[in-house]
Design brief:
Blueprint lengths: L1 H7 L3 H10 L7 H17 L3 H18 L2 H17 L3 H18 L2 H17 L3 H18 L2 H14 L4
Helix pairs in contact: 1-2, 2-3, 3-4, 3-5, 4-5, 5-6, 5-7, 6-7, 7-8, 7-9, 8-9
Length: 166
């Protein structure tokens, strides 16, 4: 909770230091996955893409060993973000697609839409504008279906950025 409070207050380096300073020995694997997910997010924010990727892989592996696909989906989504920042488009799209599948199987439309948004970003950055547009439209439909206004707004911005200039 302290690390989250530090992040919300804009002190992400302190939040990461808090996670690293604490002893996590003996905690359940599901809690370890949650901590690694935070670490991955903090590292991504701070530009440590390799650190983010390593933590995301730990989350995915823990989710797999526990048989918890939503944990895997969260780890894969973080992995897709780190890979995208490293300009590894194909790998990012693959991780995002796996995350989307896990979210869809669980009925988590918001998670599925968020993973789709990452795929659309990678497609856009790769110059695949028609595919990006279609992906953004699909994500928008899911965000609207669950009433997630912030996600819908972010997606509408992406659609606007993708729209050809006249």
């Amino acid at each position: 909770n302290l690390a989250l409070a530090q992040e919300v207050a804009g002190h992400t380096p302190d939040a990461l230091a808090t996670l690293k300073a604490m002893s996590w020995h003996g905690i359940p694997d599901v809690d370890t996955a949650r901590i690694e997910l935070l670490r991955s997010r903090f590292d991504l924010f701070l530009g440590d893409f390799n650190g983010s990727l390593a933590s995301a892989d730990k989350v995915d592996n823990l989710g797999q060993s526990l048989g918890l696909n939503l944990i895997r989906a969260q780890g894969l989504q973080q992995k897709a973000s780190a890979l995208e920042r490293q300009s590894k488009s194909a790998e990012s799209l693959a991780a995002s697609a796996l995350a989307q599948g896990f979210y869809k199987a669980a009925g988590d439309k918001r998670g599925e839409a968020t993973a789709m948004l990452m795929s659309g970003d990678v497609q856009y950055d790769s110059g695949k504008l028609p595919q990006a547009q279609a992906t953004f439209e699909a994500a928008l439909a899911l965000f609207r279906a669950v009433g997630h206004k912030r996600g819908a707004g972010i997606t509408l911005e992406r659609i606007g950025n993708d729209h050809p200039k006249h």
